[in-house]
Every structure is written in C-alpha cells, then in structure tokens.
Design brief:
Helix content is 6%, strand content 42%. The radius of gyration is 15 Å and the shape is globular. It is mainly beta. The strands form three sheets. A five-stranded antiparallel beta sheet has the order 1-9-6-11-4, with no helix packed on it. Bound molecules: dTDP-4-keto-6-deoxyglucose (T46). DTDP-4-keto-6-deoxyglucose (T46) binds next to β4, β5 and β6. This is Fatty-acid oxidation protein subunit alpha.
C-alpha cells in the first residue's frame, strides 16, 4: 500500500490493532478518535468474483467516508479534479478518507476482497455526483 496520499480531501487512517498470532488480529476503530467523525452508517461489499468489476465512478458533495479493504485487495483510484492517484488497498490496518468532492473508482478486486466503508451520514442519492463533467462543474462552482 502506498502510504503517501497526494489528492485533496483524502488521507490515511490507521486503526489500532492487537496481534495475537496465531490466535488472530483484533483491529479497532472508534468514532471521533481514529475515525474522524461519528459513524452513522456502514456498508460492506463482498462476493467480488467478476475480475472485470468496476465500482464507484462518482464523488460525493458533502459525505465523509473511510474505506477499508479488510480482506484481499483492490485498487482504489482517486481524482480531486487536478491530481489523480492509484492506491493498492491490501492492508486491513489502514483506511483511506473519501472526503467530499473526490471522484473515486474501485477495481481489480481479488476474489476474496471485502471492502468496509464507514460514513458520517445516511444514504442520500442527492449527495452523489455520478457524472464526471457534472463533478468538474461542481468543483468550479464556488
Ligand atoms: C461509495 C463507494 C465507496 C443504498 O440504497 N444505500 C446505501 O447505503 C448505499 C451505499 C447504496 N445504496 C444503493 C444505491 C444503488 O442503487 O445501492 C446501489 C448500489 O450503490 P452504488 O452503485 O453507489 O455502489 P458503489 O459500490 O459504486 O458505491 C458505494 C457507495 O454507494 C458510495 O457512496 O462512496 O461505495
């Protein structure tokens, strides 16, 4: 995993962990501590058996999220309208902040990949920018 994030409205979140090898790892996130908001919603994505799957392809207007790959791996592509970055998500101890106005795409999933996302708000379709041109226009609005 590349630990230097150069796009805006992002950053790395390190979770606390206890390694009890060979009896497992315990990995912890807490609202307003290592997770920089109060978690109102979480969702996970699994069963990524189609190697050609692409997910994401959108940005959010206001939503704050942290994305983790808690098993397997995938490639997260970020684009703040100026800078682009690809991050290999293969370390369950690190999450990536998906702040507002950050176009994101997920691809190249391993079959055992499990993605966990923490969000600071409930689902609202009106918060999504699902068209790239609309996203660029939204960035230049204010
Ligand atoms: C994101 C990336 C990382 C709901 O009804 N409630 C929900 O909480 C979510 C997350 C989705 N949905 C519905 C909306 C769509 O009809 O589930 C369907 C699939 O969602 P979407 O195509 O947006 O899934 P992804 O994987 O492209 O994006 C998801 C999140 O939606 C998005 O916020 O940032 O994961």
């Amino acid at each position: 995993m590349n630990k230097k994030i150069k796009v805006k409205n992002s950053g790395l979140i390190k979770l606390q962990s206890f390694n009890d090898f060979p009896d497992g790892n315990l990995v912890i996130g807490e609202s307003n501590r290592n997770v920089p908001f109060v978690i109102k919603r979480f969702y996970f994505i699994n069963n990524l058996f189609n190697k050609k799957s692409h997910r994401g392809h959108h940005a959010h207007k206001k939503l704050e999220q942290i994305i983790f790959c808690i098993n397997g791996s995938f490639v997260l592509k970020l684009d703040d309208g100026k800078n682009k970055q690809r991050i290999l998500m293969d370390n369950p101890h690190y999450g990536v902040r998906l702040g507002p106005k950050l176009w994101h795409t997920m691809e190249k999933f391993s079959a055992d990949c499990v993605i966990l996302v923490l969000a600071d708000d409930y689902y609202q379709e009106s918060d999504y920018l699902r068209n790239y041109d609309e996203f660029i226009k939204y960035l230049n609005k204010k």
